[in-house]
Amino acid sequence: MSLVNFTTREITCKIVYYGPGRSGKTTNLQYIYGQVPDDRRGRMVSLATQTDRTLFFDFLPLELGSISGFTTKFQLYTVPGQVYYNATRKLVLQGADGVVFVADSQIRQLDENLESLQNLHQNVLEHGIDIRTLPMVMQFNKQDLPRELILAPQELDDALNFRGAQTLSADALHGQGVFETLKAISAEVLRKLSESSATARRG
Amino acid sequence: MTTTTVVEAWTEQPLVRFVGQSSARIVVVMTPAGQVLAQHGFTRAVDLMSAAALGAAIMASSGALAQQVGESTFGALYHAGQRHGIHLAACNTPRGRLIVLTVFGRETSIGLVQVFFEEFVIALRQAAPVEEPRGPVLPADFENELNSSLATLFRR
């Protein structure tokens, strides 16, 4: 749940980048880390194996700036994509305000995308949350690969996007679509916060 | 430099007293999701945000391990280093479950931290208000400001 400090007028939200192994979740965070000025980001923590596969999570705190008088901070996390690490993946999802599902656009990875998406639904449910209420955007990564190797965004949308989430094409390695994805999930999360505060005021 | 940051004001008094009594370097109170609710002490002792994320992760994984061996939860965790030690524990309050990370040096001991931690938990429970905090007031047109902030952030 988003944390709001009325004294210092700060909002802190937790965003989790989810998806199958090697789909580009860590790459998204590394690109953001490289692009953002030092004074607007904290240290990036990566708990990885010796072969640089995410073991537990990557973590990047980010200060977006002032929105409606609130200094808005996002804490970006990735989960380990490998099937083996489901126990830790579930833990990282705890308290998430929004999810970016990073899909691998390669044709041969379609089953892995579907499995990861089903796993996301299951893990969110085990935290007692209805996935339909959780802000989510989908990123179709690796769209820079040769056409014969990948599925087009429309095909991926048909195969994966059951709930009609906003989708974005990306080449996270070179930064294309990374900013747009962060922007989309930020808007979704803050929109939900805005709606829930309006509901609370009416109640 | 000693600093105090509190998101929820009710945590401040018990927290400052706990740091003073236990002679800890820094104490961080966070949610199970790793969001910092309050901190007091020498901020240079740790990178606050990273420490909170890691502390919450340690507690979450040890809790999951506890369940696997048939325990509802494990108690506090303690790690001793050459110059610093950490004490990591969870407590239930009327405002939900909280995690407390205490970093301490040679000027105190794990025994003292444990003794005063128990008093700290009691004080937190007594201080915690039951009612929910009021929601933030984000206007419907916040997106223009969001876009502008993100454009600045990415230097676009």
Can you walk me through this structure?
The complex is a heterodimer of chains A (203) and B (156). The longest helix of chain A is centred in the C-terminal third of the chain and has 25 residues. Chain A has 203 residues and is an alpha/beta fold. Chain A has one domain: Rossmann fold. Chain B has 156 residues and is an alpha+beta fold. In chain B, 40% of the residues are buried. Classes of the chains: A alpha/beta (203), B alpha+beta (156). Chains A and B meet through β1, β2, β4, β5 and α2 of A and α2 and α4 of B.
List the topology elements:
The complex is a heterodimer of chains A (203) and B (156).
Chain A: E1 3-5, E2 10-18, H1 25-35, E3 45-48, E4 54-67, E5 70-78, H2 86-93, E6 98-104, H3 110-126, E7 136-141, H4 153-160, E8 166-169, H5 178-202
Parallel strand pairs in A: 2-5, 2-6, 6-7, 7-8
Antiparallel strand pairs in A: 1-2, 3-4, 4-5
Chain B: E1 2-6, H1 12-22, E2 26-30, E3 36-42, H2 48-68, E4 77-80, E5 85-93, E6 96-104, H3 110-127, H4 142-153
Antiparallel strand pairs in B: 1-3, 2-3, 2-6, 4-5, 5-6
Helix pairs in contact in B: 1-3
Descriptive terms for the model:
heterodimer; A: 203 residues; Rossmann fold; 5 helices; 34% helix; 28% strand; B: 156 residues; alpha+beta; Beta-Lactamase
Secondary-structure-based class of chain A equals alpha/beta
| Quaternary structure state of the chains depicted | heterodimer
Structural class by helix and strand composition of chain B: alpha+beta
CATH superfamily of chain A: P-loop containing nucleotide triphosphate hydrolases
In N-to-C order, the SSE pattern of chain B is: EHEEHEEEHH
In short:
The complex is a heterodimer of chains A (203) and B (156). With 203 residues, chain A is α/β, with parallel strands linked by helices.
